[in-house]
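[Discussion] Sanity-checking designs against the backbone

I'm trying to build intuition for which residues belong where. Below is a structure token string of 462 positions. I'd appreciate it if someone posts a full sequence so I can compare it with mine line by line.
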């Protein structure tokens, strides 16, 4: 068996631990399919929790489930003993334990070298545990003071331990997301809300959407395997890279970022297929006639939306969509003081939390600080767009697109190489252009303040 694993791993160019993970990851699809036929609520919760724990054991070993138990029990205990503050307690305890695991395992180095461990799954689990505690905390607050997302997701009653474990370990999203709400998990399991048999339209078939996600996953992996040998990250510290001209170095940074994204597109496409075929991916019916089923709940990326994004502000709604939604609901919006508008502080704090969630490598921290600058600079261009004639507006729209592509791929090098030395070497090789341009735009935005929009007011989310 070990020899077979070795030969299979060598054939596709990955390590044995990564191959083991991929096999278990793909197994979430038939396991998600079989869950459709499990009768009764309790068996469904047991099935979700049991398969999540089993696949974790097969992928990462016995210790992985012990690591998962720690934040789950910390969160549940805080909900049980101190409901009035369980959200903030779980937030700090969950992130504290995750940071400890990041530091102990130094997972980023392992991932770069072709290894893998349970830290990635622990990242997803931490968000689930925190959101569950915060929603239970919101359940004691007056409804009139809550935002729409809080009203929709708050929990009035404490979940049972098996319900909680089923939600946390449901294997379709346990390995790589997407993150979803406890309230949705309950409705799906119990056949309520949009999953009710009395809801609009017949019971939707998931098979077409599942096949689409699998075909997308196959294409993404094929393209990634083709590109990755041509654009190694080690090139940034290679003497030959330093001999290239400015534009060639900048182009190489773009291709490295472009190549790396297809790996994530593959992972998220598999997760999407698993969640869709289980039924949880269903997000309601369209308003068309006849109505068509929508499968957006499991969607974590819009590939064309990322590659042709018009503004950096739009990136959170097309890249790692569900985590971006989590950050907006549980960090960004909760930092806004009542009666005041959000500013750069909320944006920077949210990006900092995102960086810590990924790990404490300098490359992560620099990337997410860069992201905050990138979005702030893009907002300046957007505000200018709204106050000029249509002809000039088109020029600024194109300028925002070029700016986003430039700064995104420049910044993402830090996310990929992780070390401070390699990050600064790559940034310095193009004269820190991706840092200087956003800062200049932010400063210009404070000087060249646009007048009233020519046609319409700027969108609120800008």
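Best answer:
Here's mine. Compare freely.
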């Amino acid at each position: 068996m070990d020899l077979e694993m070795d030969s299979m791993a060598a054939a596709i160019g990955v390590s044995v631990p990564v191959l083991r993970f991929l096999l278990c990851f793909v197994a979430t699809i038939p396991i998600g399919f079989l869950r459709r036929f499990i009768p009764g609520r309790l068996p469904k919760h047991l099935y979700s929790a049991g398969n999540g724990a089993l696949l974790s054991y097969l992928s990462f070993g016995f210790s992985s489930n012990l690591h998962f138990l720690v934040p789950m029990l910390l969160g549940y205990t805080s909900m049980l003993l101190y409901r009035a503050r369980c959200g903030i307690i779980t937030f700090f305890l969950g992130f504290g334990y995750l940071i400890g695991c990041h530091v102990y395992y130094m997972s980023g180095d392992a991932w770069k070298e072709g290894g893998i461990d349970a830290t990635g799954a622990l990242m997803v689990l931490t968000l689930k545990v925190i959101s569950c505690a915060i929603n239970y905390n919101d359940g004691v607050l007056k409804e009139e003071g809550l935002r729409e997302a809080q009203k929709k997701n708050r929990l009035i009653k404490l979940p049972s331990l098996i319900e909680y474990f089923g939600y946390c370990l449901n294997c379709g999203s346990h390995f790589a997301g997407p993150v979803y709400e406890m309230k949705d998990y309950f409705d799906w399991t119990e056949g309520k809300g949009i999953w009710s048999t009395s809801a609009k339209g017949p019971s939707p078939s998931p098979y077409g959407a599942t096949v689409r996600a699998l075909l997308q996953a196959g294409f993404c992996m094929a393209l990634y395997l083709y590109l990755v040998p041509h654009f190694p990250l080690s090139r940034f510290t290679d003497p030959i890279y330093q001999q290239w001209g400015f534009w060639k170095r900048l182009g190489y940074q773009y291709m490295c970022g472009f190549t790396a994204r297809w790996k994530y597109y593959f992972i998220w496409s598999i997760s999407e297929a698993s969640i869709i075929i289980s039924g949880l991916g269903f997000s309601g019916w369209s308003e068309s006639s006849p109505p068509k089923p929508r499968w957006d709940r499991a969607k974590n990326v819009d590939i064309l939306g990322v590659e042709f994004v018009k503004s950096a502000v739009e990136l959170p709604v097309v890249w790692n969509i569900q985590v971006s939604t989590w950050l907006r609901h549980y960090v960004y919006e909760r930092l806004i003081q009542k009666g005041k508008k959000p500013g750069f502080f909320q944006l920077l704090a949210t990006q900092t939390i995102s960086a810590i969630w990924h790990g404490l490598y300098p490359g992560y921290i620099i990337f997410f600080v860069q992201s905050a600058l990138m979005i702030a600079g893009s907002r300046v261009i957007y505000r200018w767009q709204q106050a000029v004639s249509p002809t000039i507006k088109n020029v600024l729209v194109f300028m925002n697109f070029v700016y986003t592509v430039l700064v995104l791929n420049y910044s993402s090098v830090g996310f990929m190489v992780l070390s401070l030395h390699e990050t600064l070497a790559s940034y310095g090789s193009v004269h820190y252009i991706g840092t200087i341009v956003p800062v200049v735009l932010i400063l210009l935005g404070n000087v060249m303040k646009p007048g009233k929009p020519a046609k319409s007011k700027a969108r609120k989310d800008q």
